[in-house]
Design a protein that fits this description.
The protein is globular, with a radius of gyration of 17 Å. 30% of the residues are buried. It has 186 residues and is an alpha/beta fold. 34% of the residues lie in helices and 14% in strands.
Length: 186
């Protein structure tokens, strides 16, 4: 975890005298930070797993996707829910290029890589999320053969949708669909 500024809009939910610190899983501009987060996540799953599925929001979704891509032959999850997810980066960051230089980051582009994640996935994205294109890129990296990918859009931003009831009902139906899909593929 790295110290990080409060997300836009969160200040309105906090008391005026709040002095809370905020953190991110990693610094998205620093390959070693992403590598460290991935290693910690992998270690946590090894110590406490196995898990059938994963739910990740924003950076957590990107980190979960990164871990799935890191182990394509034996993914650590059978299904995934990505809420306002960001796309993962190229795994080559784990092997820095050149001697004595920092590795460069390259976010995976579905137009170049195609579908790379081959587990059932549910993607929930806000239509007004400033990172909506990154959520769409993550969804496009996920397999849709045999209907393994479902996308739910909601009238909102970079947030976990909480209203109206129709959106909550869609989420419940989407998670049920995902669990059924993962059980079927077992």
């Amino acid at each position: 975890m790295v110290p990080w500024p409060a997300p836009p809009g969160l200040e309105a939910l906090l008391p005026a005298n709040a002095s809370d610190e905020f953190f991110a899983y990693y610094n998205p501009e620093c390959a070693s930070s992403i590598q460290q987060a991935l290693l910690l996540f992998e270690k946590y799953i090894a110590q406490t797993g196995p898990y059938d599925g994963v739910l990740g929001f924003s950076q957590g979704a990107a980190l979960a996707a990164q871990l799935i891509l890191h182990k394509p032959e034996s993914p650590p999850f059978r299904c995934a829910v990505f809420l306002c997810g960001a796309q993962p980066c190229d795994d080559s960051l784990l092997n820095p290029l050149g001697s004595g230089t920092a590795p460069s980051l390259r976010w995976l582009d579905p137009r170049e890589e195609g579908q790379m994640l081959h587990i059932p996935s549910l993607h929930v994205m806000g239509l007004y999320d400033p990172d909506n294109l990154r959520s769409r890129a993550l969804a496009a990296l996920c397999s849709d053969k045999s209907g393994e990918r479902k996308i739910i859009e909601f009238e909102g931003g970079h947030e976990v949708p909480r209203a109206p009831k129709e959106v909550a009902d869609q989420l419940v139906a989407g998670v049920r669909w995902l669990v059924d899909k993962a059980d079927f593929m077992q």
